[in-house]
Amino acid sequence: MKFCTNCGAKLSEETKFCTNCGAKILDVNNENNTGEEKEQTKVSELPNDLTLTELKKLNNAITLKNNQTGIVKKAIYSAIFFGLVILVAIMGFDALPIHPSIVMISIFFLLMSLVIAFMFRSREKKLQSLISGENLIAAWTLTDNEKHNYVNFLYSNEKSKNIGLLIVISVLAIVIFGIFILVIDEGKLFMFLALIGLLVFVSFFAFGMPYYYRNRNLKNDGKILIGKNFAYINGFFHNWDFPLSGIKKVKVIKEPFYGLYIKYYYTDRTFTNTEELNIPASEWIDLSLLVAALNKK
Fold first, then answer.
1. Mean pLDDT calculated for residue range 194-200
2. Which end of the chain is more exposed for a tag (fewer CB within 10 A), N or C?
3. For residues 46 and 24, is the Cβ–Cβ distance under 8 A?
4. What residue stretches are annotated with the Zinc-ribbon domain (predicted)?
5. Is 46 helix (H, G, I), strand (E, B) or coil?
6. pTM for this model (two decimals)
7. ω into 256 cis (within 30 of 0)
8. Helix (H) / strand (E) containing 236
């Protein structure tokens, strides 16, 4: 029997990575090592360069389904379906007449499906490199209480943002529709009903979507996988390995919960955008080593 040098959990002799916190196990004298006497793991000893045996053992500890694979398969199936529609239209079967407008729509959806399959195939490979341990730095699983606090934090933020957008859209809609209602003599009732319908539609999404994502997040696996350029957080995958992209800031946070704060940026057609990740963790996990590893160039 030996103990994890990071969290103090009891482990079997052949274990290379802690099944509790994901830290690499050092070869130390087990008789003098107890759960209370935790030795700090150096950043250079974090699992960046792993042997094939270590990768297999780590992969056995991380039982996680790659959720990007399902998206890739659905996109491929969709592309095959619309490709068959186009093929049937080109061959001109009398038994299956297809209108030209259907062909044009099928071409559009075929191209869209191929683009989605290509994009998410790349994401699938990146997430798999975390699951296999190839690009993994740290991993842990949230407790039910930690996941509940994290989901409520996301819910509160999302709800606040949606209410702000709802107020802005409502004011603009009332002003624009109000002008038409006052100026146009005919169709005032129709414009008023259209305004009410728009406000109801926007309100439904503003208040309904946070509840939807809250329930979805509560059902997710609670797994946290952190890599140099990727992160998997309770069912959602993030990556910042694009050109002109990277990490801006990494730090340990105490509020609204103990965990890791990552601010990363990426550049696309809308120029440079930033995303902030608040990742919860158990208080006994030493995140300073992880911060140092992520800040290391």
1. 91
2. C
3. yes
4. 3-25
5. coil
6. 0.69
7. yes
8. strand 236-239
User: At 10, is the secondary structure helix, strand, or coil?
Assistant: strand
Q: What is the pLDDT of residues 248-262, one digit of tens each?
A: 999 999 988 999 999
Structure tokens at 6: 């990071």
CA atoms within 13 A on the CB side of 274: 7
Contacts of 86 (CB under 8 A, 6+ apart): 103, 106, 107, 110
Residue 225's H or E segment, with its range, is strand 223-227
Q: Please enumerate in sequence order all residues whose Cβ is within 8 A of that of 42, keeping only pairs 6 or more positions apart, or say none.
A: 289
Per DSSP, the residues of 174-207 read HHHHHHHHHH-SS-HHHHHHHHHHHHHHHHHHHH
Among 28-32, 134-138, 140-144, 197-201, name the one with the lowest average pLDDT. Answer: 28-32
> For residue 26, is pLDDT > 80?
no
